[in-house]
Amino acid sequence: MANEATVRYSDEDLKEFESLIQEKLDKAKVELKYIKETLNKTGEYTLDSGGPVKMLEDGADAAERESLTQLAARQQKFINQLESAMVRIKNKTYGVCVDTGKLISKERLRAVPHTMHSIEAKLAKNS
């Protein structure tokens, strides 16, 4: 039982990761806001009568809106993952692989701060 509490990052390490994640979270929220504003602007075109050229423009607009919608969804998912990482920091479970129970390397956490898997566990899943 005493061994369970020893597998975790120190409070100092957790503070470092918390500030890294908060920075990424702030940036991601700004980007999501921009994407949503751009999406709203693409829907503001007035409908006027046009021939084949207008139909092509409508198709391009629809494709752009679809692309922006997918981008917004991916960004929202990223924000949710970062927010979950913040909860793990508060719970002091951040940086522990959910599969192996071992610490995830600091290098991996710096590169992918929302990960819950060590590189070993990730590679094992993909093979």
Automatic annotation (TrEMBL):
A zinc finger (dksA C4-type) spans 97-121. The keyword Metal-binding applies. The keyword Zinc applies. GO terms for molecular function: zinc ion binding. Keywords: Metal-binding, Zinc, Zinc-finger. Residues 93-116 form the Zinc finger DksA/TraR C4-type domain. This is DnaK suppressor protein. It comes from Cesiribacter andamanensis AMV16.
